[in-house]
Structures are given as C-alpha cells and as structure tokens.
Write a structure and sequence with these properties.
With about 70 residues, this protein is an all-alpha fold. It is about 70% helix and about 0% strand.
Length: about 70
C-alpha cells in the first residue's frame, strides 16, 4: 500500500469536489451519482500498488500448479 498515493488522491478528490460543486448542483441525481461513483472507484484503486500486483496469468499459474502433476503423461 502506498500511503502517499492514497492521501494525494484523497486531496485531489476533495479539491475537485469543492471546485466542481457549483456546476454539479444543477445536474440530475443520476449524473451526480455517476460522478461520485467514478471518484470513489479511483479513490479505492489508489489504495493498491497496481503496477506491482501480479497479473491474471500469474494468478492462474498459482491456482493450477497443484494440478500439473495430474496432467503430465
């Protein structure tokens, strides 16, 4: 977990909300909801160190490694 990325993203989101709020007030509820959902998805992803997380192929390799001996002829 990279705390500086998390707190930096939190700061940027807070500033973005305060700057954009006068424009957002006149939008519908659905548009406000989508705006906040996208912000919170970005905020949630900032918790993880995504460039250093293994990809899906690595996860599949780890998952099926115990079955490798059963598949050999």
């Amino acid at each position: 977990m990279r705390w500086e990325a998390f707190f930096g993203t939190t700061l940027v989101i807070t500033i973005l909300i305060f700057i954009q709020w006068p424009r957002i007030k006149k939008y519908s509820k659905k548009e406000k909801f989508v705006f906040f959902i996208l912000l919170f998805i970005g905020w949630g992803l900032s918790i993880f160190d995504l460039p250093h997380i293994a990809g899906p192929l690595t996860w599949l390799h780890v998952l099926f490694k115990p079955f490798a001996s059963l598949m050999e002829i």
